[in-house]
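Box 3.1 A note on notation
Throughout this textbook, protein chains are presented in two layers. The first layer is the amino acid sequence; the second is a token string describing backbone geometry. Keep the layers aligned when reading.
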Amino acid sequence: MVTGDLAQLIGAGQLLVVFTGAGISTESGIPDFRSPGGRWSRYQPVTIQEFLTSDDARRRYWEYKRAAWPAIATAQPNAGHRAIAELERRGQLQALITQNIDGLHTLAGSSPERLLELHGTERTVTCLTCAARSDRTEVQTRLDAGEAVPQCPCGGWLKPATVSFGQSLAADVLERAFQHAQSCAAFLAVGSSLVVTPAAYLPQQAKRSGAWLGILNREPTPLDSLADWICRERAGEVLSEALG
């Protein structure tokens, strides 16, 4: 049985911190944009500094976002997302920390009280001037109608509520994530390459604090030598099996 120690921990009622990356959402049809041939190979990333100072950069940014949105908008949670939501319903989820901006954990039923979105969410747009928030779908309608760089009624620039290149992660969200990593008894990383920092430091923090560390990822990661359990199978299948 590939689930091994993970199934035993869940069967024993162990409380877990779960950390997810792009690999869990590729099973919902959302491309890993960093992979060869992904959209990042066709669109030059725009830093937050460029977005704030260059109209051309803002146009390129929103061109990319307009092209990427349909894959997110039509995606549905898969077995992996649903299994993590079930773990919460069973009272065995201490926290769910994700690098993903697709909102699929919320759609699967994970609660905002347990969910920490390190890189924000693509499903909400915020004004960089007045901080007003709106639904991403409404902005996509404006883009499809020909608006190149959407603005707020106040005149401020609109941007998805995500962390851009050159932009710091929300300090309070990151602090809470590290608190959970430091205090947990079991930490499970799912679908993450574990190379993007500071998020990649979370499993290291958990291990240093004495936690059991599991890594569920299709490819090797730099932290495999620290793991107590490693699995290379599909996340949805393994998590579903582990829950029994």
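The mean pLDDT is 94. The chain has ten helices and nine strands.
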